[in-house]
Amino acid sequence: MASQSFPVLFISHGGGPWPWMLDRMAGRYDKLAAALRRIPSEVGDTPAAILMVSAHWEEPVFTAMAHPHPPMLYDYYGFPEDTYRVRYPAPGAPTVAAQACALLEAAGMATSRDAERGFDHGMFSPMQVMYPEAQVPVAQLSLRQGLDPREHLAAGRALAPLRDAGVLIVGSGLTYHNLRAFGPAAKAPSTQFDDWLQRTLAIADPAERDDALVAWESAPAARAAHPREEHLLPLMVAVGAAGADRADCVYHEDDFLGGVSVSNFMFGHAVAPAREAPAQRR
After folding, report:
1. For the whole model, what pTM was predicted?
2. Which of 65, 125, 204, 272 has the most CB atoms in a 10 Å sphere around its CB?
3. Which tens digit of pLDDT belongs to each residue from 3-32?
4. Exposure of 113 by Cβ count < 10 A (0-12 exposed, 13-18 middle, 19+ buried)?
5. What is the CB neighbour count within 10 angstroms for residue 24?
6. Using CA atoms, how far apart are residues 78 and 127, in angstroms rounded to an integer?
7. Domain 8-280 superfamily per CATH
């Protein structure tokens, strides 16, 4: 167990089972893969467990995965046949699931536990790169249907004590998620929204930062970047768990998959910024 609080992460998890397809990707995932490989050294101590909030799981109430040995959930379509046999054999973390539910319930939120659900690709794809030996137990936590940003910020605040218990909290989504407009069509809206996000996460006052995130729909190109916000909501949980900790951009590229501006963030750990400030971009 670490001697201090673990940081909190928001990561871009990429599309489908991409880590098992790098030889077929023509370098399109090289920068994201390199950033995810850096995470264990940036985090420091190996966590006792990971609590991951994936964009690919929504339930009527916050629901935690309680399976001790979760199966695989191949929640993607149109990929090569071999990618439906990949395995990420990390153990589950039912004790962490129970702790997460207890913290949420103490904060007045209804919860449930699911003892059958498997790991989805929002979990196993980035984890295959971050911790390829699958040695860290993982519990997933769902989003709550309705996707209320203030509610997900509050959930993150409730979960923050897990950071002092050796748990790494990870929000797994994407800072731009418009499947109808990837490639060159994504350049302008993803850049506008990412610039706003960088400025917003740099706000020092936690309450002011939270208020700005709650009003995310008023950001430049907000609905062009997120026609539906499920890939943004894991960030809200991460920010809530971060409290007053600052945000550091630990990965950024302006040409992901041919035109998308995307970023990853770490809260509560001093790392060098991964990009220029938005105002300096030319």
Report:
1. 0.93
2. 65
3. 468 999 999 999 999 999 999 988 899 999
4. middle
5. 9
6. 22
7. LigB-like (3.40.830.10)
